[in-house]
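Sorry, can you check?
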Amino acid sequence: MAETVKNKIEQVVEQACAADTNIFGYDIWTHHILPVVQNAKQLAPRFDADPEIMEFAALLHDYASIKDKALYADHHIHGPIEAEKLLKRFGYPQKKTEAVKEAIATHRASVTMKHRSAEGACLANADAMSHIEHVPSLLYLVYIHHGMGIDEGRGWVKAKLQRSWQKLREDVQELVRDTYEAALRVL
């Protein structure tokens, strides 16, 4: 059952990424959502996190802001609500849905929240890793979406990377240290 629900969720999220109303463009699917899924799967054993919960939370962590640009600023608040609607529609168990919602609620680096679960900590790290590993997607966000100038955009990306770095657990920092340091040198 979980695999069927996962496939349906993947379709819904990818379709939302492809929609004209998605302010981030379709590339958020390939350059952020899928990398966060891969990172979450890689990190789950390190955090003793449930791999199934991690996959669902990673797929849905930014869904609210992709679906509706008005939800972008508070997508960590709206995300759990949107995730619950989808998971309920596809018959996903309520207890697991609650774990997915909890992880999504605490994933943002720019909003300091205590992780109340291994899955929340794992998702936050997977998301931060993705920012560090996929700097071009952040550059797209600042220059295309936000319309920033070169210096303002560079400063925004650098601050985002620094927040993401601070969010990472020490052992996870070691996995991306070279990439992080190279990105900061370029910026």
The chain has ten helices and no strands.
